[in-house]
Amino acid sequence: MTVPIPSTCVDLGNIDALTSHPKNVIPPRHSSLRLIRSPQIDDSDSDSDSDSDSDSDSNSDFYNLSKMHQKFNQSIHLVVIPASILKIGQRAFHQSQLRYLIFTRNAQIHFIGTFAFQLTNLHSVVLPPSIERLGKGILYGSHIKSILFQSTSKLKVIPRDTFALSTLASIEIPASVEWIEGSAFFGSYLETTTFPLNSKLQYIGESSFFKCQRLASIEIPPSVERIEMGAFRETSLESITFPPNSKLQSIGKQAFSHCKHLPSIEIPASVYVIDSEVFNQSSCQSITFAPNSQLHTIGQGAFGNCPNLRSLEIPPSVMWIGDFAFSHTSLQSISFGLNSKVRNFPKKMFQGCLKLTSIDVPVSVEEIGEEAFGNCIRLASVLIPANSKLQNVDPEAFRGCSRLRSVKSPIPIKIKTDILSSCCIS
């Protein structure tokens, strides 16, 4: 059944008189409707949609779906949004059987509220360029397969949970979008994410693509400055690329952790901070740094537990390295660039690197911490240059290094190993 809405209607109000369950809701071409909302929802709810019902004090300005939601929202399959509609309120079609959503020509709608189409059966939708703002979770858990933004889109933010746990397979993020908020695509079926050449994206939020286990590749726009915590954690990424003119400054905690199919990555020269556990338990065999890297800080456990990582060249710009930074990897060699600025070899920095056989400590290092080389069972040679700034070596720095025979240092070092329980080597 199709219910045509008369052009004079501004409020459906109580529709108890309707005995059948309509599948299609189609307003007239010259509809007077201004707002679709679900009055079941408490308008005092303070969230990102706080202004979504700002017109609700005037009964002549909204299309009231109060009883529709209760009586037959489950049976609605098609809704046509007329040009007169400016806003769709919170949960307007929440948990409905809606499959088709059509915006008429010259649409003026600029806002869609929180969870408006959550858990619906929408297959695809084309959003008009007039939309400036979305509430969070508008398609959370929906059956959406594709969504199309027009090239003239004005949208600046993809909010939290927008497509989380949905069946969305592909998307092109509009050039106008500057922020992708936390968990925007969490657990979705996303396979393809693309960005136009003129993308303005600056920020990829916390867990934004977390557990997108069908996402195999992505190219990050040059405009992106921050990738936040867990952004691509537990994805199936096989390739992630950054352009040479990337503006990326920081990579957040666990951003690429548990990426079991990622063989390699090149960190852009612009990156200043790699936070803790960024590549923890990833499958990377090769992690390289673009020429002229500006990297300053490598966080705690940043490269830890990478079983396939065999070699690293640390940029000379790096000054600070966190505890466990390279622990339990398969590193066979690690080198520091000429004129390295690194100040410390911290606690358990190389703990459990079972294949590491030798290392040259940079001149700039002032301290080697507790168990920095703990249980590096194949480590046989450590070279500390004559002009080293080294001031302190923890007695436990080489604990468990059962094959260590040579530590060349300009200063006496007291160390303990399984073979040399206490000795001074110089």
* CATH class call of the domain at 1-155: Alpha Beta
Note the beta-strand portion: 15-25%
Q: Termini, distance in Å? A: 91 Å
Strand order, biggest sheet? 12-14-16-18-20-22-24-26
Shape: elongated
CATH-assigned homologous superfamily of the domain at 1-155: Ribonuclease Inhibitor
Mean pLDDT: 85
Biggest beta-sheet profile: 8 strands, parallel
Derived from helix and strand composition plus strand pairing, the structural class reads mainly beta
Rg, alpha carbons: 29 Å
The strand count comes to: 35
From the coordinates shown, what is the CATH architecture of the domain at 1-155?
Alpha-Beta Horseshoe
Characteristics:
426 residues, mainly beta, Leucine-rich repeat, LRR (right-handed beta-alpha superhelix), 5-stranded parallel beta sheet, 1% helix, disordered C terminus
